[in-house]
From TrEMBL, chain A:
Source organism, top-level taxon: Bacteria
Record's protein name: Hpt domain-containing protein
Keyword Phosphoprotein carried by entry: yes
Entry keywords, A to Z: Phosphoprotein
Annotated InterPro entries: HPT_dom_sf, Sig_transdc_His_kin_Hpt_dom
Domain HPt, residue spans: 22-121
GO terms, biological process: phosphorelay signal transduction system
Organism from which the protein derives: Holdemania massiliensis
Modified residues (Phosphohistidine): 61
Family matches, as Pfam families: Hpt
Length: 121, 682
């Protein structure tokens, strides 16, 4: 049995902050489950493939907001950096590496959350 | 029970909306929008219900700033507070949001306490502001009432200082009013209108306003006044008048002018022995005369620091005996007449706290009238709910267009029917709308809207719309909306589309039926003539060739006689079928009488060959009955250039064919000119 607190520790999230704001582990879990279903990251990925930087910026921005709301600080930071580069809404050499980094962080995040949800099922 | 406030949450992320909804659902009704466009639509539908908007900035379709801009344009921003919620921390964004009228800014990550507190505070702030706004507006409208309140307050201040019972002012008003009404009944010398009576009665409350400048020690001295003190007291009438003359409204407000006269002259006496001016008889304005009598009467029947109260009867006696100075004899008559009423009225009005209750009444009235605009809103809301209910029940395609926001909204069911969005920004440039209408139809529709007038606002038209890939007929009924129904300013258009496709198709069928011979499905004679006229008059030129074939079934009568009419009909249908399988779509084929038919067709060359082929195909057998025909042919342009000539010549050729032994065709030539005709030419 993996606790939400342990999960946050693994993911370098701010558990103290999220529990202060959401009060119960159940609620945090509920929103983590929603995050798994969220398609902002896919949108970001597709938009970047299509070089649609406007949509990419929006998707990254939304994702950043969601991560901040869930106190997933480490991932929020990575996405935030990408968001800032995308703000100009045009191609930039930094986008590639930053997206790589974000992908890795996001994959790790998804794996972490899935682990939490599955074990607690 | 107080209705719960409704909060609109606008955020493109499902998660973020849920987070906020979780925090607020306990205390508020919630509506959600996933982008700015939806938000604007919801606002325009429910603006009077929504108490607050939580707005994200970065969203697809329409972002938060654009929503704010739209709310500025529509004026909603003044009544519905907006709290921005964003992960943006740059001050440029925040400033921009505030510039556009946002009430608050919350940055992510937000916590429950902050969100709840800010939502609550903001709603309260705006509610209070709205309440005050209502108060002010409605109060302005109630100027008359306000005047009264001000008069009341002022005179109560004076009374308070005088140490009087607090009822004097009200008594004076009641007595003044009663005396004036009585005076009207007894003479028309003073030309008093009901309005003047009301004004004098109201102004009477200010008669002692000058006493505010008299030292309290003199004013409330229990014992007898010295002559010097009495002189000081006597200045109050002139001072009161002066005070009112200096008021800004003196020039424009008749009420103030009347009050000024009363102030200055309510201690004058009819015999000229009063103060301050020693006016005599009718030199004293009637308003001051009446108030002066009322003042004396009330002073007598009330307790004063220097005296006890007299009874009504004692007071009446003292006044009529001239113990309180000389009054207009006519007014004394009035007092006598009004006496019993006064006694009763004053008793009723003297119940303790009556004036306070009256003031409370007035205050309550004011507050109620302050609420009137809310009540109006509530009624309006009720109407809207009703409308929406019926709209959803009626399965109609209803729409509403707002010029201001350039926003078209279509009822939920209607949008689904048409396969378009419920809310469409800039509909004139919208591809969904452009696909729906042909451009000519759309122009026609817009022109009807533009030319509609308030006297006759309803417009309608029937257009084929491209709905989900197929064309269907719709009737549109609509009306423009104007500001105050004056044609100067157009604010919107409302209307509905009705699917009349089935009716239209039926109508087309009826039209079709009018040209079709029901037995054979071929055209009837009248239509065939019209169709040929059209071709011959408009389309055909001398380089084209047409042939008119007129024929009947040989010995058809025998088919009817021997096999019955039903069989005869079947034979006719069979011939029709043979015709239809051997002519082109563009050819005209018709049954023109009992067993008579015609075919009108274009040909290039090889006329004989074509005729031969058709002639053969018509001959054959049906259910053992041998069908043969006789046929006459006339050609355009050689044998004639109009229907009548061609028909007549084809008919003569038919007659020739019959004369030659039937079962054959015959082309017209000039030798047949004198022949009789084969079929009737009616």
């Amino acid at each position: 049995m993996l606790s939400v607190e342990q999960c946050y520790a693994q993911l370098q999230g701010d558990y103290a902050d999220i529990i202060r704001r959401m009060r119960t582990d159940e609620r945090v879990e509920k929103f983590l489950a929603m995050l798994v279903r969220d398609n902002s990251f896919d949108q970001l990925k597709t938009a970047l493939q299509q070089e649609d930087y406007e949509t990419a910026f929006r998707a990254a921005h939304t994702l950043k907001g969601v991560l901040l709301n869930l106190s997933l600080t480490a991932q929020a930071e990575v996405i935030s950096e990408l968001t800032e580069v995308l703000r100009k809404q045009q191609a930039d050499e930094k986008i590639g590496p930053l997206f790589e980094q974000a992908s890795a962080a996001y994959a790790e995040l998804m794996a972490g959350i899935r682990e939490l949800l599955e074990k607690n099922e | 029970m107080k209705a719960r406030d409704k909060v609109l949450i606008v955020d493109d992320s499902d998660i973020n909306r849920s987070l906020l909804a979780d925090m607020l659902a306990q205390d508020y009704d919630l509506v959600e929008a996933a982008n700015g466009l939806e938000a604007v639509a919801l606002l325009s539908q429910q603006y009077s219900e929504i108490s607050l908007v939580l707005l994200d900035i970065v969203m697809p379709m329409m972002d938060g700033f654009e929503v704010l801009a739209s709310m500025n344009k529509s004026g909603y921003i003044d009544h519905i507070p907006v709290i921005m919620i964003s992960a943006e921390t740059s001050s440029v964004y925040i400033d921009h949001a505030y510039d556009l009228g946002a009430a608050e800014y919350i940055s992510r990550p937000f916590d429950e306490k902050t969100v709840k507190r800010r939502v609550k505070n903001t709603i309260m702030l705006y509610a209070k502001q709205k309440y005050l706004e209502n108060m002010v507006t409605e109060q302005l409208l109630e100027k008359e009432k306000n005047n009264l309140v001000m008069v009341e307050i002022l005179s109560h201040i004076v009374e308070f200082r005088n140490g009087e019972s607090g009822l004097h002012v009200m008594h004076i008003r009641v007595i003044t009013e009663a005396l004036l009404k009585q005076l009207c009944r007894m003479t028309d010398r003073y030309n008093l209108t009901p309005e003047q009576i009301a004004m004098i009665s109201n102004a009477s409350a200010l008669h002692d306003i000058g006493k505010i400048s008299i030292p309290e020690s003199i004013l409330n001295k229990p014992g007898k006044l010295t002559p010097q003190e009495y002189d000081i007291i006597k200045t109050h009438s002139a001072i009161g008048a002066e005070m009112l003359e200096k008021i800004h409204y003196f020039e424009t407000e008749p009420l103030v002018q009347v009050a000024r006269n009363i102030c200055r002259w309510h201690h004058e006496r009819y015999d000229g022995r009063g103060y301050p001016d020693g006016l005599k008889g009718e030199e004293i304005p009637i308003s001051a005369q009446v108030v002066s009598l009322a003042d004396v009467y009330d002073a007598l029947v009330s307790v004063r620091v220097y005296k006890a109260a007299y009874t009504h009867e004692e007071a009446m006696r003292m006044i009529l005996n001239g113990e309180c100075g000389t009054f207009n004899p006519l007014l004394l008559e009035c007092l006598k007449e009004a006496g019993p009423t006064l006694k009763k009225e004053l008793k009723v009005r003297s119940l303790s706290g009556a004036s306070r209750i009256e003031l409370q009444d007035m205050a309550r009235n004011l507050i109620q009238s302050g609420n009137a605009s809310n009540r109006t809103l509530a009624l309006l809301e009720q109407e809207r709910t009703k409308y929406q209910f019926f709209a959803s029940m009626s399965k109609e395609i209803q729409f509403e267009y707002n010029y201001h926001s350039d926003l078209l909204s279509i009822s939920e069911w209607g949008a689904a029917q048409l396969g378009v969005n419920e809310v469409i920004m800039h509909p004139l440039q919208n591809s969904q709308i452009q696909k729906l209408f042909s451009s000519a139809d759309f122009e026609d529709f817009l022109a009807k809207i533009r030319t509609a007038q308030p006297e006759d606002p309803i417009l309608s038209g029937t257009y084929p719309l491209q709905v989900k890939g197929s064309s269907r007929w719709f009737k549109v009924v609509a009306r423009p909306l104007w500001v105050m129904e004056e044609s100067s300013e157009l604010t919107g258009v409302i209307g509905k589309f009705i699917d009349v496709h089935d009716e239209q198709v039926e109508l087309d069928q009826l039209k079709q039926m009018a040209k079709i011979d029901s037995l054979t499905g071929l055209f009837n004679r009248a239509y065939a003539k019209r169709a040929m006229d059209t071709i011959l008059n408009n389309e055909a030129d001398a380089s084209q060739n047409y042939a008119l074939l007129v024929f009947d079934i040989d010995f058809f009568k025998s088919a009817n006689d021997e096999y019955g009419h039903l069989f005869g009909d079947q034979v006719l249908a069979n011939v029709a079928h043979r015709i239809q399988s051997n002519v082109r779509q563009s050819d005209i084929s018709a049954r023109i009488g009992g067993d008579e038919f015609l075919i009108f067709m274009e040909y290039k060359d090889h006329l004989e060959q074509m005729i031969e082929r058709i002639f053969r195909s018509l001959n054959g057998s049906y259910e053992g009955y041998d069908i043969t025909v006789s046929m006459g042919i006339a050609c355009f342009p050689n044998d004639g250039s109009d229907y009548l000539t061609l028909f007549h010549h084809a008919d003569q050729a038919l007659y020739a064919a019959k004369r030659r032994g039937r079962r054959q065709y015959c082309l017209y030539d000039d030798s047949m000119q004198d022949l009789l005709t084969g079929v009737s030419t009616k």
